[in-house]
Amino acid sequence: MSKSITKHLVVPVANEEDARETARVLDSYEYGQVTVVHVIEKGGGVPDKLPLEQAELRASDVFGAFRGFIPEADTETAYSRDVVAAIIDVAADVDASAIAFHPRGGSRLVQFLSGDTALKLITDADRPVISLPEQTENK
User: Fold this and answer.
1) Which residues does UniProt assign to the signal peptide (predicted)?
2) pTM to 2 decimal places
3) Rounded CA separation 66/59 (Å)
């Protein structure tokens, strides 16, 4: 028996601009349930990048930007040193059929230096990963 790859998507977003662009692109396709996830990176023995209250406020703003296009989206905030592992864990927790993301730009050098999160997500995920295109046609 086959199952729909887009029955329940987990969609990671990093910031408000990423959330808006990802939701805009995703909304031009058919999909089932959507859970948008924002990972608050923890320092792990060093100071966090942002104070917790500020990071949680940013997550709220990110979710609001996404819901501007897809108001029915569920939200999850994850706290982790490992962004990719956190996304995969959320996907497992909500029993997602796939993970869909909109790759952010950057030169190959920037991607190499940052560890290329997209590549890690594609190679480490235990379920299908869908890369949304840069441009889409209107519905």
Assistant:
1) none
2) 0.85
3) 11
